[in-house]
Amino acid sequence: MSHRIPNDPERVNVNDEQEAAYWCRELGCSAEELQEAVSAVGVQAADVRLHLGQATRDPSRAVDAVRG
Does the N-terminal or the C-terminal CB of the chain have fewer CB atoms within 10 Å? Predict the structure, then answer.
């Protein structure tokens, strides 16, 4: 499998197997965690990063932190 970067590095594409694998490696999460994060906060990479970082500490605050 290729280790290519995403077509749009500011958006997480969970529908493309290679891009999803890239984001899992980049963010240190499973495919299920990545999908949950995208479902919760959308596809913006910065939002997904924040959600995953917050989710490891306090899941109840993750979405609120992203929304401001």
Answer: C
